[in-house]
Design goal:
Length: 111
């Protein structure tokens, strides 16, 4: 079992059903020290699932009070691999600690 934080399109029911074959269970949480940017998506399969041309992307902020709100979902090893396949190469997956104290995977800017 893994914990995965989503602040964007992985929270959409359509994306969850098409990516994982089910709706994910999770809880609200917050990540400090990051802010959201915008990323133009060109991958046809990702566009088809999300139906959104621009996706949010987490970037380290120079302002320590910045934060990103989202959901921490419980997923399987297979679903983590499916999430990796959904995210384009502009994202990388890292482990972070959230306001709740939970440690979860998050996709951030691959810079």
């Amino acid at each position: 079992m893994h914990l995965l934080f989503s602040y964007g399109t992985l929270q959409l029911e359509k994306v969850q059903i098409e990516s994982f074959g089910r709706l994910l269970k999770g809880s609200k949480d917050t990540l400090k020290g990051y802010a959201l940017g915008k990323l133009k998506i060109t991958a046809p399969d990702v566009l088809a699932k999300s139906e959104k041309e621009y996706h949010p992307i987490a970037e380290i902020s120079i302002h320590p009070n910045d934060e990103i709100k989202g959901m921490i979902f419980e997923i399987t090893n297979e679903e983590l691999a499916q999430a990796d396949a959904y995210e384009v190469s502009d994202y990388k997956r890292i482990k972070a600690t959230f306001v709740s104290g939970k440690k979860a995977w998050i996709y951030v800017a691959n810079k």
